[in-house]
């Protein structure tokens, strides 16, 4: 009578092979599930960077806006004497990889001045009866574009206007500090510029 009992080494070898096969199947299943979850999550992830198409409208994450304060010649200046008006302008830069189109017209560009938590002046209050215009420009990647500088008459703004001609009151000076931000097409400047009125 033949002995069909397997040697212990054969049994252990078969067990190791079976464990390796099961482990491989389990790893494959986990990888498949993870891949499906990642794919589905990518479809609904709002933070996923959209595809940039050359010549299309700029996407907000493609644009950097910087606020600037200084002279009428667009030279930076951080403090202003009593007879000097600060001038504001913004710079927009396409930080994407393809050129895109951005509206930088008066219909979508604004400046705001604050002192601490006090909202001092907002260009949205300026010339409310004047037509606001669109001005789309094509922005090449990494080429900053600045708009024309406009003066602030060192007054508050309100629903009644934003200038001396509108009867707005003067703001404090004598070393008072103010903060400027710019907004272009809904994109707020990354920086906040501090300046002083003497």
Mean pLDDT: 86
Q: Name the helix and strand elements from N-terminus to C-terminus, one letter apiece.
A: HEEEEEEEEEEEE
Distance between the terminal alpha carbons, to the nearest Å?
Answer: 114 Å
Molecular shape: elongated
Give the tally of structural domains.
2
Named at the architecture level, the CATH assignment of the largest domain is Sandwich
The radius of gyration over CA amounts to: 31 Å
* Largest sheet, strands/sense/barrel: 6 strands, mixed
> What is the total tally of β strands?
12
CATH topology group of the largest domain: Immunoglobulin-like
Tell me the structural class. Answer: alpha+beta
Uncertain runs with pLDDT below 50, 5 residues or more? none
State the share of residues found in helices, binned by percent.
Answer: 10-25%
Q: Name the CATH class of the largest domain.
A: Mainly Beta
> Count of DSSP helices?
1
CATH superfamily of the largest domain: Immunoglobulins
Keywords:
Immunoglobulin-like, four-stranded antiparallel beta sheet, alpha+beta, elongated, six-stranded mixed beta sheet, 2 domains, about 20% helix
Quick overview:
With 198 residues, the protein is of the alpha+beta class. It has one helix spanning 8-44, and strands spanning 63-70, 79-80, 87-94, 100-103, 109-115, 118-122, 136-139, 145-146, 150-151, 176-184, 187-188, 193-197. Helices cover 19% and strands 29% of the residues.
Secondary-structure blueprint:
Layout: H1 8-44, E1 63-70, E2 79-80, E3 87-94, E4 100-103, E5 109-115, E6 118-122, E7 136-139, E8 145-146, E9 150-151, E10 176-184, E11 187-188, E12 193-197
